[in-house]
Write a structure and sequence with these properties.
The chain is α/β, with parallel strands linked by helices. Helices cover about 40% and strands about 20% of the residues. It has one domain: Rossmann fold (3-Layer(aba) Sandwich). The chain is built from seven helices and seven strands, in the order αααβαββαβαβαββ. The radius of gyration is 17 Å and the shape is globular. The structure holds S-adenosylmethionine (SAM).
Length: about 220
């Protein structure tokens, strides 16, 4: 769970101070403390679920870029004890009931293999990717890295989804965005773009929900 900073007074740079002020003033951050969610990102997924009915009990879900676990918490709650949530991140993540976590860099084949192993050929209902690289602020560096991660997520979706399956991915507007949307439209019957309320207006991120995998 996100922790408020301790009372100690230590100096931070102006940029960090303004980031911290924005973060701790944020309504979704405050709400996440109350609701016991590990990140404000939970509210993006809850809103998407409300609108698009993403989850049912007993589903099998893959959560890529899962740390600190906000989406995994929502997914595990929604699929219930009969469901399966396999989550992965390059960072460590504290254990969560009902979530099978694999730590590793998704650009390495070993993580894909570990996910496939855990699935044991079980059909997947929903593949989700909230992966985002560490942003340098330079679009020429950040955008290709972000597009590469979401391309790999789509490859995993194509490998694991049965016909009719769904794929949800965070994509940053910029170079490669339109081509990616076209690629999704080639593999799925329907693709919609979503910008949940908890996604900051200034962020170039949007979510693509692709439905009806053609197999
Ligand atoms: C926006 S955060 C995800 C938040 C998460 N969905 C939640 O609800 O708490 C993006 C995540 O992508 C992960 N990530 C970035 N590059 C990665 C990579 N190469 N392999 C796996 N995860 C990666 C980051 O470590 C980070 O945890």
């Amino acid at each position: 769970m996100q922790q408020k900073p301790p009372g100690r007074k230590r100096s931070v740079s102006k940029t960090s101070a303004s980031w911290m002020k924005e973060h701790f003033d944020d309504q979704y951050v405050k709400q996440s403390w109350q609701d016991g969610y590990r990140s404000r990102a939970s509210y993006k997924l809850l809103e998407l679920d409300e609108k698009d009915k993403l989850f049912r009990s007993g589903m099998t879900v893959i959560d890529l870029g899962a740390a600190p676990g906000g989406w995994s918490q929502v997914a595990a709650e929604k699929v219930g004890p009969e469901g399966v949530v396999i989550a992965s991140d390059i960072l460590e993540m504290d254990a969560l009931a009902g979530v099978d976590f694999i730590q590793g860099d998704f650009t390495e084949g070993s993580v894909l293999n570990a996910v496939l192993e855990r699935l044991r050929n079980r059909p997947v209902d929903l593949v989700m990717s909230d992966m985002a690289p560490n942003m340098s602020g330079m679009a020429a560096i950040d955008q290709p890295q972000a597009m590469y991660l979401v391309e790999l997520a789509l490859e995993l979706a194509r490998e694991t989804l049965p016909p009719g399956g769904r794929f949800l991915a965070k994509v940053f507007q910029g170079e490669g965005f339109d081509a990616y949307l076209k690629e999704l439209r080639g593999s799925f019957d329907r693709v919609v773009t979503r910008k949940p309320g908890a996604s900051r207006a200034r962020s170039r991120e949007v979510y693509f929900l692709a439905e009806g995998f053609r197999g």
